[in-house]
Structures are given as C-alpha cells and as structure tokens.
Design a protein that fits this description.
The structure is a single chain. With 322 residues, the chain is mainly beta. Helix content is 10%, strand content 34%. The chain contains 2 helices and 20 strands. Strands 11, 12, 13, 14, 16 and 17 form a 6-stranded antiparallel sheet that branches. Strand 18 and strand 19 form a beta hairpin. It is globular. This is Heavy metal-binding domain-containing protein.
Length: 322
Amino acid sequence: MNAAARLGAYAAGLAVVFTGAFAAAGAVVPETTVSAWTQQAEGTQMAQHTDSGQDPVETTSGSHAEHTPQGVSREQSGYLLQEVSAPGTTGDAGELSLTITGPDGAPVTEFETSHGRQMHLIVVRSDGTGFRHVHPVMDEAGRWSLPWQWEAAGTYRVYADVVPVGAEQNLTLTRTVDVAGAFTPAAPEATATDEVDGFQVSVEGDLSAGSTSDLTISVTRDGQPITTLEPYLGAYGHLVALRAGDLAYLHVHPEGAEPVAGEVSGPDVEFATTAPTPGRYYLYFDFQVDGQVHTAQFALDTTGAADTRPSAGATAEGHGEH
C-alpha cells in the first residue's frame, strides 16, 4: 500500500461506529442489538460484493462503497476481533487488551505499519463522549495491550484499526465494553467551535449528504493563529466523523501533500468530506503542538449543497486511519 493510499485511509476513518441506545447505569448492550449490528455489517459487505462482483477492496470517492457506513462488525474478511478485556468499573487501574485472529483461526502476529503504528485504537462512549485515540503494544503471541482506566461509566465502542500482512485492505474491527457505575448520557449540541487546552478551534464549511464538500479547521490561541502545527502520524491533523444516532463514520480525506518531518503548518487544515445521509455528525480533530496532541470536538448538521467530485489522490479503505 503506497503512502498516499495509507494517508487517505488513515484520515478517512479511525472508524468509530456504535449504537445510541444505552441504560442509565451499568449499561449493557442486549445480545439482540449486537446481532442486529452484525447483520447490518454483513448486509453491507454483501451489498458491496453484489455491486462489484468481488470482495470489497479500496474504492475511490464517488463509488457505492464511499457512501456505505463501515466498521460496524467484529469480523471482516475472515479476521475477527476477539473479546476485549478491560476494567469493569470506573476508577480501577488496569489493562485493556485484545487479540485479532485470522481466517485460519490463529492469532495474527504480523501487521503492516500504517502511519508509524501497527494498530490505531479508537475508544468512544455510546453518547459520543470520551473519545480516545491510542496505540497499544503487541506481544509475541499476538495479544495487544496498554494500561487503562475508565473515567466514566457507560457502554463503549472499541475499534481496532489494522492492516494484517496479506490483507487486501485496512480493517476496522469493533467490540463493545460495558463499564459499571452511575451514567448520565450527554446530548452534544450543534457547534462549530471548541476550546481545548487553551486553544480555540473552529470548523468552516458545509457537510453535504451524498456529495463531497470541504471543511477547513482553524486553530488559534488568544486570538493569534497557530502556525506551528506539527506532523502527527503523517498529517497536520486527523479528523474522525461519526453519524449521530448509530455513529457510523463517514470518509474524510486530508487535502495537500503528506508533511515532511520537522515541518510545521497552520493555522488551517483542510479536509474533503462526504456525509452518507442527512443529519447530525460528531467530529473529532486531533492536532499536535509542541509535541502534545490535543483533540477538539464539534457537532455539525448537514446543510447546503456541494458538487459531487472525487477527492484527488485519495482512496477509502474499510477502515481507519490510517
């Protein structure tokens, strides 16, 4: 996979998809709901197979798969995310661990490096809060792990974004984790601005259902533009976009060339986006300044219109960042 394809895949997804249904405390996802997620994912894969006459592969903007939500299943192309182990309550220091098995049923131990990492792990609570993008370490047996502690109770989606050696595409495999404790779900309001760690971050542009449009994210501090955005995993910023309700992700492509190590940029980072359906979307923007990664969050409703066009040089994989 070449660098351009990986860059498009990385910013396209860090895919995060999960349900909006949850309980008020010690939330548990019913088995019937999990079954429905799996059936939806299998239906998506079957639709892609029927349209193309072959297994899903990388697709350019404007194709059927470009507008089909993905990353909703624990299994893809024979690869399976086994049960995720993590602390069961808030405040307990422990470990989050997982294993991916291949089509032969054995743990996968060989992965391609994509944007400096062999796995990009996304964790988000079912109401869109608690977003984390981290990078666990794998042992010789294929078990991935990292220290972990939950700050709030609820049902979380855990997404493993990987490229197993020999796989035809990025894989985004997902499982749910239930964390016991008092749980008050959030209801994010529509907003195009956020303040994080002293930075003011804003997004301009329209999300247009079914067509590609541009979003420009700007970073300032105390009214002054930040021109020292550093490359982070191969880009000046990464954008994850999730559809409110089921939180299916939409494809997001960074504009411009991949930065060279040591270069800085800013205050603007541009993305080409395509919303698969009308509605509200949650956006998470990672950026790095002075070696520190920050995450701004927005909520946008689809509005306006945009010309349908492919994103130059970008492809979307079943996946993630990735």
